[in-house]
TrEMBL record:
<dbReference type="Pfam" id="PF20492">
    <property type="entry name" value="ERM_helical"/>
</dbReference>
<dbReference type="InterPro" id="IPR000299">
    <property type="entry name" value="FERM_domain"/>
</dbReference>
<protein>
    <submittedName>
        <fullName>NF2, moesin-ezrin-radixin like (MERLIN) tumor suppressor b</fullName>
    </submittedName>
</protein>
<keyword id="KW-0175">Coiled coil</keyword>
<dbReference type="InterPro" id="IPR019748">
    <property type="entry name" value="FERM_central"/>
</dbReference>
<dbReference type="InterPro" id="IPR046810">
    <property type="entry name" value="ERM_helical"/>
</dbReference>
<feature type="coiled-coil region">
    <location>
        <begin position="484"/>
        <end position="518"/>
    </location>
</feature>
<feature type="domain" description="FERM">
    <location>
        <begin position="1"/>
        <end position="269"/>
    </location>
</feature>
<dbReference type="InterPro" id="IPR011993">
    <property type="entry name" value="PH-like_dom_sf"/>
</dbReference>
<dbReference type="GO" id="GO:0005886">
    <property type="term" value="C:plasma membrane"/>
</dbReference>
<dbReference type="InterPro" id="IPR011174">
    <property type="entry name" value="ERM"/>
</dbReference>
<dbReference type="InterPro" id="IPR019747">
    <property type="entry name" value="FERM_CS"/>
</dbReference>
<keyword id="KW-1003">Cell membrane</keyword>
<dbReference type="InterPro" id="IPR000798">
    <property type="entry name" value="Ez/rad/moesin-like"/>
</dbReference>
<dbReference type="Pfam" id="PF00373">
    <property type="entry name" value="FERM_M"/>
</dbReference>
<dbReference type="InterPro" id="IPR018980">
    <property type="entry name" value="FERM_PH-like_C"/>
</dbReference>
<dbReference type="Pfam" id="PF00769">
    <property type="entry name" value="ERM_C"/>
</dbReference>
Length: 562
């Protein structure tokens, strides 16, 4: 090309280039800039000149009329924006459902492991009017949308967008272009709505329910002259409807919308052209192919997921089998160790059994020996108990004798006191007699002498009585001495018997302690306690007798001193 350009004459190369201007086209998902030549139209001075690529005429049935996928996607974005900008009214329930399909189209199937709470925080999904209508937080709205979103599993992007448009096309304000108009003669403010179904007249405050409608099938002609529009019904009996619009540019736009929508309305009710049929067939084949591809991909994805799950299950099972094998090996080792320990314990138990059998034989011999010894011990105990009873009887007898001797000593003491009194009176009497027989010279006249027979008799009586008392005292002292000797001899004999009994008790106790090491431990202990009680009782009785005897001996010593 550069070589050919060099052969062109210079004046042709210097020809003035056409004037161009920059154009910026904004679609719903992209922006494009390029240059265009200046033609015979007025061009704004803005640079670049911005154009918005939007659908001017809305389809009646989106599923039938939106053939290509890109057209469907751009139209979905346009309708979605109009709903969010509140150009199309949508109830809160329908808004949440539409938002769930929009999320399905953008994010695909819901995965709770990936779509964590808050993943919709940056997405605009609901109109502001809906958000302000209820006192709900963003998390609460997200929870509601996610609940619907989770039910759309398996729906592809184009299918989710189509479901969105199916719901949107049933909304009252879908595809309606509104214009401010006034009615003839009364200048009443009204709204004119133009859509795929026909023309509608609304009150200014209500865009949902029209006051009057003119379907395209019932309109014969639409015309306007400057600001006046005339709608002629197909039924000539009906009145012609006229309205006014103040702007010429708006009037031209209204006329274009009416012509275009009417033309599409009529074409939809005719057989499609060959080009349209080919486009629909191609689109149908393309959809079928994509659907098949999606099914294959879904099947492959499912198989891959199943394979991954099977792999995870096999890995888990492998780990489980490895753990079971490790535990089985550990159990085997423990069982081998346990078997060795059990064998060793069995050998020890066998040896212990032999030792116990030997000990049992020895115990049987000891039992027989202890039985013989117990029989001897019983006889010895019987003799000892007999001796103890005899000692007790002797102690009781000695106690009784000591009490009787004490009583006799009391009588003797009383007699001795009386004898002392008699002796004292005799001495007094003798002294008186002596004074009478041998008077002492005084200055007083002497008393008349007594008869000699009387004085001799008195003296003789006193001497006889004194001699009698002396002989009684000697006899009493001899008896006391004799009884003291007898009592000392008996006490010595009793002490000897008690010592002998104590020696026998100690020897018997020693034998019983030796027997306690045998098989009859409890029985021997019981017999020992009974024997100990008897010994304590015998010892206490002996001590009591000795105490009583010591008191008696102290009394006898007193009498001897007297």
């Amino acid at each position: 090309h550069y070589g050919a350009l060099s052969k062109v004459p210079l004046f042709l190369q210097l020809k003035k280039q056409p004037k161009t201007f920059k154009v910026k086209v904004i679609t719903m998902d992209a922006e494009m800039e390029f240059s265009c030549e200046v033609l015979d139209q007025e061009v704004p001075k803005d640079s670049p000149i911005t154009f918005h690529f939007l659908a001017k005429f809305f389809p009646e049935k989106v599923e039938e009329e939106l053939v290509q996928e890109i057209t469907q996607h751009l139209f979905f974005l346009q309708v979605k924006k109009q709903i969010l900008d509140e150009e199309i009214f949508c109830s809160p329930e329908a808004s949440v459902l539409l938002a769930s399909y929009a999320v399905q189209a953008k994010y695909g199937d819901y995965d709770p492991n990936f779509h964590k709470p808050g993943f919709l925080a940056q997405d605009e999904l609901l109109p502001k009017r809906v958000l302000m209508q209820y006192q709900m937080t963003a998390d609460m709205w997200e929870e509601k949308i996610t609940a619907w979103y989770a039910e759309h599993r398996g729906i592809a992007r184009d299918e989710a967008e189509m479901e969105y448009l199916k719901i949107a096309q049933d909304l009252e304000m879908y595809g309606v272009s509104y214009f401010a108009i006034t009615q003839n003669k009364r200048d009443t403010d009204l709204l004119l709505g133009v859509d795929a179904q026909g023309l509608h007249i609304y009150s200014p405050n209500s865009k949902l329910n029209p006051n009057k409608s003119f379907p395209w099938s019932g309109i014969r002609n639409i015309s306007y002259s400057e600001k006046e529009f005339t709608i002629k019904p197909l039924d000539k009996k009906k009145d012609v409807f006229k309205f006014y619009s103040s702007q010429l540019r708006v009037n031209k736009l209204i006329l274009q919308l009416c012509i275009g929508n009417h033309d599409l309305f009529m074409r939809r009710r005719k057989v499609d052209s060959i080009e349209v049929q080919q486009m629909k067939a191609q689109a149908k084949e393309e959809k079928a192919r994509k659907k098949m591809e999606r099914q294959i991909l879904a099947r492959e994805k499912q198989m891959r997921e199943e394979a991954e799950r099977a792999k995870e299950e096999m890995e888990r099972r492998l780990f489980q089998l490895q753990d079971e094998a490790r535990l089985a090996n550990e159990a085997l080792l423990r069982s081998e160790e346990t078997a060795d320990l059990l064998a060793e314990k069995a050998q020890i138990a066998e040896e212990e059994a032999k030792l116990l059998a030997h000990k049992a034989a020895e115990a049987e011999q000891d039992r027989q020996r202890l039985e013989v010894t117990a029989m001897k011990t019983k006889e010895e105990k019987r003799l000892m108990e007999q001796k103890m009873r005899e000692a007790e009887q002797l102690a009781v007898k000695l106690v009784e004798q000591s009490e009787r001797r004490l009583k006799e000593a009391d009588h003797l003491k009383q007699d001795l006191t009386e004898a002392k009194d008699a002796e004292r009176r005799a001495k007094q009497k003798l002294l008186e007699i002596t004074k009478t027989t041998y008077p002492v010279p005084y200055s007083t006249p002497p008393a008349p002498p007594a008869p000699p027979e009387a004085s001799d008799f008195a003296y003789e009586s006193a001497s006889t009585r004194l001699d009698f008392k002396d002989s009684d005292m000697k006899r009493l002292s001899m008896e006391i001495e004799r009884e003291r000797l007898e009592y000392m001899e008996k006490s010595k004999h009793l002490q000897d018997q008690l010592k002998e009994l104590k020696t026998e008790i100690e020897s018997l106790k020693l034998e019983e302690q030796q027997q306690q090491a045998g098989l009859y431990n409890l029985r021997s202990e019981h017999n020992g306690k009974r024997c100990a009680k008897k010994i304590i009782f015998s010892n206490s009785n002996a001590c009591f007798v000795l105490q009583r005897n010591s008191a008696y001996m102290s009394q006898m010593a007193y009498f001897e001193e007297v």
